[in-house]
Amino acid sequence: MVCLKDPLVQKVSDLCEKISRLDSLKPSKDVDTLFTHLVLTCMPPYPIDVTKLCEKIQEMRSNLIRLCGEAEGLLEKHFSTILGSFDNPLDHLEIFPYFSNYLKLSRLEYNILSQHCSDVPSRVAFLGSGPLPLTSIVLASYHMTSTTFHNYDIDPSANSMASRLVESDPDLSKRMLFHTTDVMSVTDAFKDYDVVFLAALVGMDKEEKIGVIEHLVKYMKPGALLMLRSAHGARAFLYPVVDPCDLRGFEVLTVFHPTDEVINSVVIARKSLDLPTHSIDHGFINGSLMISCKCAEIQAFNPLNQMNMIEELAMEDHLS
């Protein structure tokens, strides 16, 4: 049982306490400093299993994930407001301090998706797109240039801010659609999508996340792909963890744990074609039967190594 005697847990607990005492989580020098320190603390590989944390630390972790989620939402609203003040917001995305991370994460997800999808999907859903839908924007602009993105968020103000960012672009304004609704109320519409992306903060704890996954397995069409974000090691203090065994009704295809500044792990799974949901207790990772959830803690291949350098330089030229 891991408790406060662990030096990393002690450090994270101290930071959580300091963050909890802040008057506001809106972007400020104090907020930025504490969260930067937290991320840098959790980023290096560290042999910790969050399922073995004592109850007190589990409660701290749950609280910290919610604080991180709130701060991330406020940060996105802040920069979406700034970007929305430009005539052409998409020309200024680099002002967002973590834009380069989104470029890397989106490329990572696209490379993994390409391993399991023979054709570029025509319609995808992104659940939890928020006021600054950078993943959708980057994928639509550089990787899936003919795909229509249906972005779902429960917050009408988030969708209003997000749509403002793309409305001046003649292409993206037609391919980026925004739906204000609770994803748990979406049913038959999920059958229209070849790929569903699930944001890391849709479902802030294990029970909520599994509830969303169970809803998706009920309504996604057989054979459709689910791309979702998780966390591994100490990074699980920042984001919820999705274990492959949580994905009942899906065949787990790839689990990838980055070790660089891309914080989120990436999991891709396929909605089962012929097995009833209740009978699925395992998945397949790169063709190997996964008997235990623990077997899924792998880094099967590194899609970041497959980056096209010419494309990357072209993207940098476009942004400069």
TrEMBL record:
GO terms for MF: nicotianamine synthase activity
Keyword Transferase part of the UniProt annotation: yes
InterPro entries, sorted: Nicotian_synth (IPR004298), SAM-dependent_MTases_sf (IPR029063)
Matching PROSITE patterns: NAS (PS51142)
Catalysis performed (reactions): 3 S-adenosyl-L-methionine = nicotianamine + 3 S-methyl-5'-thioadenosine + 3 H(+)
Keywords, comma-separated and alphabetical: S-adenosyl-L-methionine, Transferase
E.C. numbers: 2.5.1.43
GO biological process: nicotianamine biosynthetic process
Domain of life: Eukaryota
Record-stated family: Belongs to the nicotianamine synthase (NAS)-like family.
Role of this protein: Synthesizes nicotianamine, a polyamine which serves as a sensor for the physiological iron status within the plant, and/or might be involved in the transport of iron.
PANTHER family: NICOTIANAMINE SYNTHASE 3
Protein name as annotated: Nicotianamine synthase
